[in-house]
Amino acid sequence: MSQHHWIFGYGSLICADSRSRTGVTGEALSVEVEGLERSWNVALDTADLSVVGVRQRKGYCTGGMLFPVEEDQLPLFDAREQEYQRVELPRSSLCHLGNRPLPQGHFWVYLPPEQTSPHPIAQSYLDVILHGCLQEGEAFARHFLEFTSDWKTCLDDRQQPLYPRALNPEQQQQWLPKIDSLLARFNLR
Question: Does the predicted TM-score (pTM) go above 0.85?
Answer without folding.
Answer: yes
